[in-house]
């Protein structure tokens, strides 16, 4: 008889363990199909096709664990080891392209790696909040001091979750993960846009330095002509001194432009996350074409496709899911305990069953429900704020774009050709002794500044285009906000208090 009931106790324990294992398997099988984060579109990502409530995909690295394992290994986003500037060595001889700089930045920017880590945190929390409670297995003995009447009992206890709380937990964290994936997209776009704008700045300074070099040659020739005219008693020493002053001014402009050029390269290195990136010759040219843009239509499209706005929408869905989750918290879970053993006093077996549930008399989760409603309102307002922020940033960029477009057209088609013709006529007249040298200096200065202004306008136009293409997302090194969530909902699920 004793043996019979001991076997019964072991069987009851196995039944309880089997229930717990099944629940754990259900929760951990929520891992998602692998979709590489690194392959997400950087410049112009499309709106996420997954719907709220479904599980967003996260890249998974190869793992030896079975498909039912709760161990999830994510794509590596480990901090850089060694000197990150080593990546810059990938630039072999020749000119550096925009694509090379973008690739370098996307591989090393610390904010991208930080957001990738928060995305992994959100995925980890999603797994954790859906896990079933572990069963409790124990041994109980009574009347041990009275030999012959002692009782021995093996028991198994399991808490059964009601109202699909674990599923609702996962839904909340699904939206948190979706938000983080969109934020990661947005960060990659910020890095790309910042690299593009700095590239166009550096390219503009590079072209200005080339113009300065060409103009310096013209000034040298003008200086020589002024000296020859002085020796021939056709000019004055004032002309020579004025030519010398103009050469000195150009040298100053050259040094200032060189300093700006080098500083821009240091910015590129910082955004790219490398220790150093010496200035290199950049390949590429400015697009001479520009069109009048319907900015209201552009604003509508940017908002619809912006990952920043999509992340805000995901946070609204998350707040809705959390409100639904807190609404069922007061429905009590059921705890079942099954035990089997022997009573030595009667030489008979025992079989005990205990079922319990908390009664939601005082705590009906009313505080968390009120907080969840407030969080939903806050998320809606945050979405509206981001929408208006996109419109405001686009308005500022549109001003730069239109200003640069008008300047580029005016300098290239009118001002610069006129200044060039005026300079040629002035220098010819001066050589013939028909014009004062001061007028020649003015013509030179006008022609030189017109060239610099054209390059400035072209660089500003290209930068403005890059910002529009990048959803007016900038600030690649700004602080990253961690909205990955937490595993607090799981504790709430099983505390029932």
Descriptive labels:
elongated, alpha+beta, Outer membrane efflux proteins (OEP), single chain, disordered N terminus
Characterise this structure.
With 497 residues, the protein is an alpha+beta fold. The chain has one domain: Outer membrane efflux proteins (OEP). The protein is built from 10 helices and 4 strands, in the order H-H-H-E-E-H-H-H-H-E-E-H-H-H. Strands 1-2-3-4 form a 4-stranded antiparallel sheet. Strand 3 and strand 4 (348-356) form a beta hairpin. The longest helix is centred in the middle third of the chain and has 67 residues, at 165-231. It is elongated.
Quick overview:
With 497 residues, the protein is of the alpha+beta class. The protein has helices at residues 2-28, 98-108, 110-129, 165-231, 237-272, 295-305, 307-327, 366-431, 437-469, 488-495; strands at residues 136-142, 151-160, 334-343, 348-356. The protein has ten helices and four strands, in the order αααββααααββααα.
